[in-house]
Every structure is written in C-alpha cells, then in structure tokens.
Amino acid sequence: MSIFTPTNQIRLTNVAVVRMKKAGKRFEIACYKNKVMSWRSGAEKDLDEVLQTHTVFVNVSKGQVAKRDDLSSAFGTEDLTEACTQILAKGELQVSDRERQSQLEHMFRDIATIVAEKCVNPETKRPYTVILIERVIKQLQQSIQIQRAHMRLRFVLPARDGKRLKEKLRPLIKTVENEDFTEQLEMVCLIDPGCFRDIDELIRCETKGKGTLEVLSLKDVEEGDEKLE
Amino acid sequence: KNCIITKCQITWRSKVKMGHTSLEKIIALQKKTPHIRNLCILAHVDHGKTTLADCLVASNGIISSRLAGKLRYLDSREDEQIRGITMKSSAISLHYTTGGNEYLINLIDSPGHVDFSSEVSTAVRLCDGAIVVVDAVEGVCPQTQVVLRQAWLENIRPVLVINKIDRLIVELKLTSQEAYTHLQKILEQVNAVTGSLFTSKVLEERAEKDAEAQSSCTENGSGDQVYDWSAGLEETDDSDLYFSPDRGNVVFASAIDGWGFSIHQFAEMYSQKMGIRSSVLLKTLWGDFYLNAKAKKIMKGAQSKGKKPLFVQLVLDNIWSMYDAVVTRRDKEKVEKMVTSLGLKVMSRDLRHSDPKVLLSAICSQWLPVSQAVLSMVCEKLPSPAEISAERVEKLMSVGARRFDSLPEQTQELKKAFLDCSADETAPVIVFVSKMFAVDSKALPQNKQRPLTQEEIAQRREQARQRHAERQAANQSAESPGSADTGGASTTVAPASGAVTDALCAQTEALSVKTAVEEDNKEHFVAFARVYSGVLRKGQKVFVLGPKYDPSLALRALPEGCSAADVLPSVPHMACCTVDSLYLLMGRELEELDEVPTGNVLGIGGMEEFILKSATISTSPSCPPFTPLNFEATPIVRVAVEPKHPSEMPKLVRGMRLLNQADPCAEVLIQETGEHVLVTAGEVHLQRCLDDLRERFAKIEISASKPIIPFRETVIRPPKVDMVNEDMGKQQKVAVIHQVKEEQTKYPEGVQVDSTGLVTLTTPNKMATVGVRAIPLPEEVTRLLEDNVELIRTMEQFSLFAWEDKTLDINQKILENIQEFKVKLESNLQGRKWRGAVERIWAFGPRRCGPNILLNSVEGYRRPSVWQCLEREKETEKAEIRDFDNSIASGFQLATLSGPMCEEPLMGVCFSVETWDMKLSAPLAQQDSIDEDSQTAEPNIDNQNESSDTHETNASSASSNRSRSGAEAAGSSVDCYGPFSGQLIAAMKEACRYAFQAKPQRLMAAMYTCEIMATAEVLGRVYAVLSKREGRVLQEEMKEGTDMFIIKAVLPVAESFGFADEIRKRTSGLASPQLVFSHWEVISSDPFWVPTTEEEYLHFGEKADSSNQALKYMNAVRRRKGLYVEEKIVEHAEKQRTLSKNK
Q1: CB contact under 8 A, A127 and B952
Q2: What is the pTM of this model?
Q3: Considering only Cβ atoms within 10 Å of each terminal Cβ, which end of chain B, N or C, has fewer?
Q4: Which domains are seen in chain B, by residue range?
C-alpha cells in the first residue's frame, strides 16, 4: 500500500498511450496527443515534442515504470530513449481525435479527387470539379449526372476474325465512332474502362496475336476552354 | 426605407403627370430629326451625373424638382440605390422648348465607376453628343480622362458642366476670386486632355501618312525624296475642340442645389441692366477683363492691375453673397430683399424651413435653373442626328482594319443613307444595338396594369350587373322549384347558360393567370438601340447582322434586291427576324411604340434569340456591321462559380448564358478542369454579376471561389550557390540527422540510385531492368516544344501510320516547318551532353506532344526516329523496333502527366533511358496456363500504392500491345504481377519518378504579364503591391506626351486573385492593370529545401521555418488533391487544450 502523497506525484495530462507487447511483457510509453502519427510519417522530427517523458512504463495510468531487466531482455538495450523510439515506431495506439479527423479528411479528398479525375458529365464531356464532387458525396440526396469517362480504343483485326470477333465485342463497346471493313476490320470506339481487360484478352486470344489494339486516349474529355455563348 | 417609399410615390406621381399627351408629343417630336438630340452624361465616379440627370428629368415633371438630386431616378436597381453608384446606362426621353422650338432630348445616363466603363461605351456609341461633368473640387480625375477619350474615339462632340460649385463656397470656403482661378485651372486641365488626344491623333495620322509615303517611295524606288519634319500640328486647326465659356459650351452648376448657368444667361441679364451690348459681354465675361466704372469701359489685364475680373464681379460675387445670406448667415431680411430684386416668388413654407438648403434650392432653381442652362446649351451646341459627319460614318462602317474603300459598292452607297438620315419610306433601315438588357416581364408595358379607360369601366360594370342579375334569377328559380312548370323551362335555361359562361370565364381567367405566371419567370431582353436611317416599324421583317458579318459574302450569296421577308439561303452571322415590339425608354419605365423614325434611341423587344450582345439591324443585306465597341476595361477578375446544390448545374449554365448576353463586359467560360469561370472587369462588377446570377438569371444559390491554379514540375541543374548566395563548394556541409533518416526511406527496395542520378529499377518479375536519368532541358528547347505542339502531333501521327505500314501524306509546307523545327532544336541542344540527341528522341510527353522528351541512350538499340516523315525517300537501314518499345514510351507518358511533387504535369524534363535489359527467355509453354489467371491478377506493382494509378497503368499496358509478330504473344506473359507489358510501364514510370526526384526539383508557376498604366505619384504604391505579390518589374517607361508611366511586370497567376482590385484601391484608381497569360516560370526556391550549409544555419536557424513560396504552393495543391502533406497536425505538443479535469 502506497501512501497518498500528492507532492510526489507528477501528473501527466493529454496523454496518448502507445502500447507494445514484447517478450511476453507489456510496455507503454506516454506521448502527447495528436503527435504520434506525425512522428511516424516523419513530419515531426523532435522526439521531445512527441514523448511526455523518456520513460517506459508497464502501465502509464498507474504510473508503474518498467523494470530495467525486462527492458534489456525485450529491446536489447537499457537506453530508455532507444526503447521509446522502438515502441513509438511499432506499438499500437489509440488514434487521437484530430489525427483521425485529418486522416478522414485526406481519405475523403483522395476519393473525391479520384472520382473527379475519372468521371465526366455525360452531357458536356467535361469533368466535374473536386469541390462539387465532395459536396455531392456529403449530401447524398442530391444527384448529378455522372459517368465514368470513356476510353477511346482503336483496333485492327484480320478480316478472317473480324466478323466473329465483332459480335463478341459488341456488348463491351459503348459507341462505335468509326468503322472500316475493307481488307481488315478497323474500328475506333469508346468503351467503359472496366471492360478493357476483357477486350484485350478477347483480341489477344482469338486472333492469336494478329490483331492490334491501341489506346487512343485514356479518358475521352473535351479539351481546352469553351466560351459560353 | 424612406427612399423606397418616396420612390413609390414618385412613380405614381410620374404616371399622373406623364399622361398620354406627353407620350404623343414625344412620338410627334421623334419625327422631327433636326430637333432631336441624343446625348449621354459622362464623368468620373461621384461627380454628379445622376444628380444632374435628376434635375433634367425634373424639368419635365417626371419627378418633383424638390426631390431632384436625392432620388436618383435613373438608378433603378436596388443595389445602385444602396451603394449610391450607377451600374448601367439607362435612357430617358425628355422634351424641351426654347425660343419657340421644341426639342426631343434622348438622355443616357452612364456609370462612372471603372468597372462599368463598358456600359459607357455602349452609351457613347448611340449618341451624337456628350455632357462631360467635372467636379469643381476634384477636377480632372482618371475616369474623366477615360470618358473624354471614349467620346473622342467615337467622334462625338462634348460639352462641359463644371458641377458642385457649391462645395467651393461651403466646404473649401474659397473667396470668389480664388474660385475663379480654381475654375480656370480646371478648364485648363480638361482642355489639356483634349489637346493631348488631338495631338496624338494628328501624330498618328502623320505616321500613317509617312508609312504610306515610304511604301510608295520604295515602290517607285526613285524620284526626289522630300523630308518633311513638320508634325502636321501647325496646319491642323484645333480651336473648336476646346471648352471655353465664351463659346457657350461650358456650364457652371451645382446640380444638388438645382442651379446652373452659362455665360449667355448673365450676358443677356447684364446687357439689359447695364446697357452693354451682349455680344461684348459674351466675349469679355470670361477672361482677364475688368470693368472700369469711371470710364464705363471694359478693360483688359485685370490680373496685372489687381482688379476683379468681370466674371468675379458680375457673376460669382452674386452667387457668393446669395450663399452667404442664405446658408452662412441666414439673414432673413437680406434674403427677402434679394428675392424681390430678382423677381422670384418663394413659398413661405420654404422660407421658414429649418434647413437652409431647402430655401437655397427654392431660390436658385427659379433664378438659375440648371436644367435650362444645360438643355439650352445642349440644343445649341450639340449636333442633331441629321448632322452626322461623313468621317464618323466611315469609321462606324469599316470594321477592324478594313478600309472604307474596300467595302462593296452597295455598302458604300449606304453612306448616303447615313448622311441623309431621312425617315422616308424608301430609306433603308439601319439600327445599331449596343447592348441587351434584361427586363422583368412585369415591367413590360404589355403586362403592366394600366388605369382603365371610361369605356372599359363601363363595360365591366355592365358585365358585373348582368352577372348579378343572373345570379339573382338563379336564386329565385332555386327558391321556387317547379313553381310553374310552363315558365320553368325558360327560366332555368338562362341561369344554366349563365353558369356555363361563368365557368368558362373562370377557366379562361385561370388560364391567363397561369400563362402570366409562366411569363413572370422568364427574363425579357430589350435591345438598347438607335435608328441611324429609315423608320423601324413593329412587325417589320429585318436582317440581324452579327459583329462578324461580311456584306460582300452575303451580296454574293443573296439575289439582287432581296428583302428580309423572302426565303433566303443562310449566310453566316446573319439572321432574319420580325420586329416584335418597340419601346420608348423612359428610365425605369418602358412605353410601347408602333414605329421609331431615324435618329432616335429606342428599345427593341424579342431579339434575345438573334442577338448576343450587340448587332446591326437593317433591311438591306449590304449593310456592314458596325465597328465593335471600344471597351476601355477588359475583364480580368476571374472567379470559379458553382451552384450550392450540385443538381442545379444546368440552371447555372443557363443563367450564365443569360448573364453573358445581358452584360457587355462579362465573360463566361468552362475550363478544361470543368470549372465554370466568370470573368469580370472588377470587384464591384463581379458583385453585380453574382447578384444578377442569384436573383435574376439562375435564381439559385451560388458560391464563387478562387479558380484552380495550374502548376508544372521540372528539374534544374544543381545550383552552385546556397540560399544566402554563398558558394556551395567551399563550405562544409553540416550533417543533419533527420536528413540521413529521410534518405533511407526515400527509395524503396529494388531501386538503385547512383550519385549521378541514374536510377535503375527492375520489374517485379525480375525480367527487365531499366536505367533512367532525368536531365533538365534548356529553356529555349522547352519553349520550342511548346510552340510546335501541332507539328509534333503530326509527326506522331505519321509514326503511328508507319507502324502499320501505311503512309500519311503531309503537305510540303508542314514538312518544311518540321525540318525547320528540327534544325532549331539541334541548334539549341549543343554541347557534349546533347550530342546526337535530336536524332535519338524517342517520344514527347505527356499526351505524346508535350514539352518533355524521352531520349534513347540505350547502347546498341536503334529504333526508327521520330523524324521519319522527313527521311521518307532515303530509306536507310531498317531500324529494328524492340518488343515492348511502346511500354517504355507509355511509362514515360504517364510519368510526365503527373509528377511526384504534387501530381501536376512535368515540363522541360528530358528522360534519358541509359540501360534496358530484358531476359526474354520466358518459357512460352507456360503462357496458356498462366493466361487464365491473368484476369484475376491485379498488377499490384505500384510501389506508391496510389490506387488511382493502377487502373491507368493497366489501361495503357494495352497500348504496348500493338504487336505484329505472333511471337510477340509472349509479350503477354502473365505472372502473378499481371501482364508483363503493364509491369514494364509501371517500372518505367517509377524509374522516371525516382530519376526526377534524384535531381533538384522545382515548381513552375504560370505567369501573367501585366501592363500597368500609372501616374508618377502612385508609382511607388504600384511597386509595393507588385512586390508583395511576388511580381517582378520588367520595364518602365513614360508614355510620350503624357505624365503616365507604363510598367511592364510579370506576376504569378497564383498571386493574381484580387490583384487588380488591390492595385486600384491602393492607387485610388490611378493605375489600371491588364493581365494576360504569358509563360511558365521556374520558381527559384526549392520546395524541399532545408538548411545544409553553415551559412544557411546562421541565417535561417535549424528549423528554417521562414516562408518558402514553392513549398506553400506545393502543399496547397497537395492538400487540394487529398495527397499526403508533410505537416504536423499540432505544432506544439504542450499547447493543446487540456481535456481532462485539472486535479
């Protein structure tokens, strides 16, 4: 039983605990909130800004410090700072509020950017802006016309396989822009990028490498500025 | 609130006063062309245009003279009233009688704010004369100069009103003598501006003549050469250009107090009183003359003799004593004495009023009414539409650089119609529409509620009575059902039929209500126009000619003597339509008209389908379109506009189209990024456009934001000096701990980077290895590549065709251009490093035609050159294309499309492929079995784990499959890492990215060149704004003949948001910038810079957290795109909010 002696207590506030189990023992260190992720990503370089104290605990909230023997057996060193950095790098932690928030925000932005990059307004064939996409995702009851930007392909098939393949390709093609069947079948068409692999496979296998396939544009969008008049 | 209430009262009152008689009179006057004056009021902002217009409007009884100057009748928009500035030009027709002659005055009020100077242009075009208003205190201001120039360019005659003279008395407390010299100075200033306009024109003409003479000289090649050095100024007479009170083209006024006078009035007044001939007084009243009372003579040289000039003694002193008595001392007796001596009647209510201004304006508006002074001057001095000068006609008719003589003959004949300006039936109709303005459908006279005429009232009463009777009859019959079977039949029929008609009435009423509601939602456009010849009638068929219409083309296409009523073949920029409705513009009101004869300003309804912003309307197809309006302000403030609710996008687009039509200066466009951009002339203009979009055109909530700013990424040669300009070589590098740590994490496994920046990378299946080095391209080469995109595209196309054993025919001209392009490239790529580089170019990127180069430096690999279109004839040894050649190129394309710094395209980077080893011994037998798996196997090669890339990699892998040989099917060798070609693309892309990162990376910013005109006194402030926004001054020179400086500077696009506004604010509008995109420029600071040398440590400290421009831009882009940004979530760990309770 320890006697309650307030003057001897060092109280830690705003603690984020990082835990690690090693060599059958549990180790904890006391860090500041919202700092551990920055350390791991390399943005924070000052260890003192991350660690509350260069001490390895068994239990931070109870203030139980880890024994030296355990430390050396688990980390191979008695240097507390070294042990702390190891725990910091590999231990598990409760992600703090603002870390979570910024993570989510990044993720959200990333998703919106990808959507904006890959999709177009089917009417104008122009992309939507990221901000608009974000807004649509946030308020889901709103809806806009959106479509995966088409991919423009051009393929040349030998006359022999042309007819047969065309039937097989038909369901995969969205629109045929240009078709020329004289000596060989030459086609320029728009497809959904998801179908690309199928088409690629089909042409490669069926023509035994005779057919050629080429991507004219990865996404079919209007280029340049347009004046509204 | 008060203001709005009074407005209502006034509009009501105006209706009462503007009865039909007045409208009829105006219609009658419209036919007398020599008695029409079309004029506009021009001035700097806040010099009192609208107040003066109020006084003139009040003279016609449209508004009360008591409210003139406070009401601002022509500012009909709510935001105009709130902000107190005019934002559009609006017209009103006034009637004025002088000396037994009746005049029709079409007055156009214009805005003075710089942002709306386009509205001024639209007003000036329709007028023959202009009233230029100058503030007596402020004198000539920037906009005054601008409007004088505009009037000059349109060849319209100006008259001057020096306004706000009361401020000289009340605010500045000048004596009459001082005021006189002050007024003289202002007059001089105005005349100086006119003079310089005149000089520049003469000099220009002279230069033109010289050029012509020179060309003719060179043609002749001989003959005696005469050198004429006289500028031509001496020969040209300019005396009638200037403003001078004794010419009668200057009025001194105080519109707010309702008085104004010209010298004429006083001359006549005193000639009666003093018995001096008025012609003598007229000449001497303004100028250095004084009255010698003893000799009863008017003598010259008042200044040298210290005498009071005549103007002070006879004119100003009277006004000064009036102000003294009424405003300053409030001497009742003296006032009464003055009033009786002037023979005026002042109401006792005004005499007792506590505000002396009321009394003052009551006296002054009777004594020296401003409207009379101004209107009589206008009628005398400004030309009528019939007096249009031949010079102006030619200027209007010759579009662009085309000379009048070069127009078709029939068109030249129309000049006569202009000059005749006749309202004959036979005269061709020529109308110019200078702008379209939107009108609420409620405001259109057709939809307006009118007071009912006597007959209508009687008719309605009759109807109501009938209905009442029927209802009563029905009630009666209902009360006594089946009372009398015999009569019942007849009585029941009547109410029944009555009920039916009632129901019908109700239906039709409902219908009409519905259509009315529908119409309410629609914006109506009215064309603001003027008839230059002929009579425009309602229901007439006319041609609408767009600004790009060419009469000579049409004359060839159309049969001789055709009219708009015939069925005609379509001609570009020409449309046929019927004139829907014609309006008389009465400020905020419109009155319907049936016909408008020549020389009048009018509104035309129902033209929105045919006219975008401006157009020419004519009955003759040979009519040329009028020269485009000279806009002083070009739109420069850009914002991206988005609807609050994304589903309302179509509404926004529609609204923006309407806005574009309604505003002469606004531009709207959709950018490649998908942004809807609105470009306006200034911040105030922007605000108005957004308000219009919200409330009238789109009727949705919108948000405006900074537009997306593009960047480019590049590498540079390693810098020789550090951030503090110390030589790098001599200094010792200070080891930084965390940097070492970073170096290790920078490159993942399998990537080797040597000290020279060569990056070697192996595909995941260990089959191929590529070695790539990034080299910065010289600036000139980058520019060359940018300028020749079209050529590169052609070359690319040629290679593509060659691949399939086809040929593409390129015309000789383009081939020559390509050859020239190649030579230029060679001359710019000199030195050991670039030996033979041009021949070894593998591809251009991104999108196969960008400003980056892929170089083939692989030993022993000769591939067909990109220049093969040039060497078609000399078939050299057949170069061999290796398998997967295209994968390398595709990888390069992807890498250049988005760089590692912030996923923006690369620019000016050369990637040189130094090694490319393949182990193509892949066992073919296994292929088939593996092929089946390929569909499930995702090519998970992307080390960056950017999921977005996987798909693209995947996709472009196909482009590599342009295989021709059957054996190449081996190329589809698929293992758990996906198709091999895809792996190679990914490997190449990554190699390029790492090679890029191994070099000093820099960001490139888009730059505007910016031309600023500024006066000498604000030069310093212009520089301050420029340097604050990272701008750089290129040159500064004085404009010849003026005190204006022209500064040429470059400014990053990223810093340009709000620049125009800031510079205008800081220089009080004395400098106006023009921004044009010019080029891409490397930002010199390194976004990844950390202090490394001792000097840098000393200077910046260890953290070096001073702002780094490039880093700021880079992080902003990364944050926008949701990429990882290296920044701490919390800066200081200890400074966070403590959430736990303090124990």
Answers
A1: no
A2: 0.72
A3: N
A4: 8-207+240-381 (3.40.50.300), 400-443+523-618 (2.40.30.10), 637-708 (3.30.70.870), 758-997 (3.30.230.10), 1001-1085 (3.30.70.240)
